[in-house]
Amino acid sequence: MNIIDLRSDTVTKPTPDMYKAIAEAELGDDVFGDDPVTIRLEELAAEKVGKEAAMLVPSGTMGNLTAVKVHTRAPQEIIVEEKSHVYNYEVGGMSAVAGVLPRPVKSNKGHIASETIQAAIRDAANVHYAPTSLLCVENTHNFHGGVYLTPTQMSEMYATAKARGLNVHLDGARIFNAAVAQGINVREMTRYCDSVQFCLSKGLASPIGSLVAGPRGFITEARRVRKMLGGGMRQAGIVAACGVVSLTRMVDRLAEDHANCRWMAERLVECSGVTLDMATVQTNLLFFRTAQPAAELITLWRSGGVLATPVGAQEIRFAFHKDVSRANTERVWEVVRSTFE
Ligand code: TLP
């Protein structure tokens, strides 16, 4: 049986172009700084997000942790959104490795109000406090349903943070989904952050890899932190070759994932026993609540060849990506609808 895997957009397999690029990659040693394809990818990435420099890391988690460590000095506080990936799904690395204390705050689907940021800042003048030095934002916001932040929302948060002397790190794991969904250039959002992490290994279909981008001095320091974390890769061109394909040929295609996601949402929302907020259906992630236990449904669907992830006792996420075609989406609907009838 052909398995349709909606567990995550991280499951995508490399494209034929990627295998070809791997085979043709001229390799060096990236810790010595002489791997040509990695250099090319980093330059391309920096240019795409409008920053001075960029650095390849093995994962989004390492990218976020590296950025947090470079931006902060222990013991400081950093403001994080309460449902953010960096706060909930990165094993507390920011505390274990960077020695910082996260201060989680509420938001409107990832958009943190100016007053909320102001109220969360711990002033260095108070001897009791670990002073705040960084604001982390996430775009698209995974656990708010894959919703995007607009340039206006990003600029508001950035202005508030900068006025109080904070830096802003953007977890832009899916920032290209945010750009494609809004029909804008990714730079219209990344200009409102000091550093950004984005993933090659999600909708952009690379097997491995993320980039951290920011000012040149920031990236120089980030290279030291990456080495400390064990993320200095040698013939990294094997990975970077795929990344170049991701950035040059895989971005516009994300619109297909968004369309498949919407197609499915429009049908699921009509099912009795499903609660789904259509306003959150903006990119490739589809979250919905179910009357039945999520684990039961997921087991049933697995026997029909459909894999999905529970995100709560009665909540499920479907992630659409390049290995889920419209025909696959239709088959998922056939499998899923039968369990709701
Ligand atoms: N997200 C994964 C899981 O870890 C939940 C997924 O399937 O969505 N930031 C955001 C917003 C993410 O969604 C993820 C991965 C990361 C960072 C971390 O990236 P990796 O998995 O490369 O460390």
| CATH architecture annotation of the largest domain | 3-Layer(aba) Sandwich
CATH homologous superfamily of the largest domain?
Answer: Type I PLP-dependent aspartate aminotransferase-like (Major domain)
Strand content: 15-25%
Low-confidence stretches: none
Strand order of the largest sheet: 2-8-7-6-5-3-4
> What class would the helix/strand composition place it in?
alpha/beta
**Distinct ligands:** ligand TLP
Note the total helix count.
Answer: 14
Specify the helix fraction band.
Answer: 40-55%
Radius of gyration: 20 Å
H/E series: EHHEHEHHEHEHEHHEEHHHEEHEEEH
CATH fold annotation of the largest domain? Aspartate Aminotransferase, domain 2
Brief account:
With 341 residues, the chain is α/β, with parallel strands linked by helices. The protein contains 14 helices and 13 strands.
Task: Explain the layout of strands and helices.
Blueprint: E1 4-5, H1 16-24, H2 36-49, E2 53-57, H3 60-71, E3 77-81, H4 85-88, H5 93-96, E4 101-105, H6 114-120, E5 132-138, H7 151-163, E6 167-171, H8 175-182, H9 187-190, E7 195-199, E8 210-214, H10 216-228, H11 237-249, H12 254-268, E9 274-275, E10 285-290, H13 294-303, E11 306-307, E12 309-312, E13 315-319, H14 326-340
Parallel strand pairs: 1-11, 3-4, 3-5, 5-6, 6-7
Antiparallel strand pairs: 2-8, 7-8, 9-10, 10-13, 12-13
Helix pairs in contact: 1-11, 2-11, 3-10, 12-14
The protein binds ligand TLP.
